[in-house]
Design goal:
The chain is mostly helical and 50 residues long. It is built from one helix and no strands.
């Protein structure tokens, strides 16, 4: 029984880590898309000054 519980915890831990990694990747890609758009707008605005 103890071995089963250990394996179960390992599986749950692995699943949680996978979900956390996927969520982190998703948030990072969203953040970089947003930052990229803001940066592009900033570059366009600075080009207008010259």
């Amino acid at each position: 029984m103890e071995q089963y519980e250990y394996r179960h915890d390992l599986t749950v831990g692995h699943a949680a880590r996978t979900v956390a990694m996927a969520l982190t990747w998703h948030l990072n890609s969203m953040f970089f898309q947003l930052w990229g758009k803001k940066f592009a707008e900033f570059v366009e605005n600075t080009e207008n000054f010259y």
